[in-house]
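Aim 2 progress. For ABC transporter permease subunit, the working sequence is reproduced below.
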Amino acid sequence: MASLAQQRRAGAPWLSPPSPGIRAVKAVVIALIVITMLYPLVYVIAMSFAAPSQARAGVVFPTEFSLDAYRAIFNGGTVTQGLQNSLFITVVGTVLSLAATSMLAWGLARTRQVPGAKAVLIMVLATMFFSAGIIPNFMLIKYLGLLDSTWSLIIPGLISAFNMIVIRNFFQGLPEELIEAARIDGAGEWRIFLQIVLPLSKPVLAVTGLFYAVGYWNTYFNALLYLNDAEKWPIQVVLQQYVLAGVQIPGATLPGDAPPPPGVTLQMAVIVLATVPILVVYPFLQRYFTSGVLTGAIKG
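Predicted structure tokens for this construct:
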């Protein structure tokens, strides 16, 4: 089989640079894809800041802007409560999930030292292929006393088997000599785990933490199943109940006798508030993706 250098010398068509026409076509296609992806986001953000007169007129891109929609939302009501609920679920759930997943991964990464680790690993892997279903899960939440509780959105998904495998593989890639040296110096298991393993695992913890945070922030279906009290709804349920249904959002009013903002600006503002937090966090963790996901997902 000819080498890459021989193919280049022979003038293989797939190795030759593309013609200017092909480059122009690629540039146009990429530009269209970018515009298609950015247009909805730009439209939603622009309409959330649209002045009431232009929002009622139905302009595509407003030229006059106002903060009335955000003032009405943060004045109190359902949306503010939903944001607070989602923030609590995301922060507490992510911290608890990272703690539980990393501890389980560390125990399963040391199958020789922990009795029964392989059996536990098989049981965890089985959850990736078999699910109990909606009704058994609902009955379990009911019998545990978690129905209509915020904890019903955190405890059932506390450990993700996929995230555990990624962290476990990362732990297995840590130098064993470093662990043995710490053990010789008298360090116990908890000290090794907290002061050596976790500081060295910041990339994979940052990536899995983002995975957990996105999952908790976007909690929707389980909230519909387990929560009956509207005051406990996360922002995604509020988004569905009031924005997609086109119903006036309760409590979204301006102080005094000022007329409420148009419904379309309130809806777009809620969409922005439900989307922006994850978009803001992602760039700070992006640099960990290559070292965290690839190192944790590939072993050997």
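The chain has 15 helices and no strands. This observation will guide construct design in the next reporting period.
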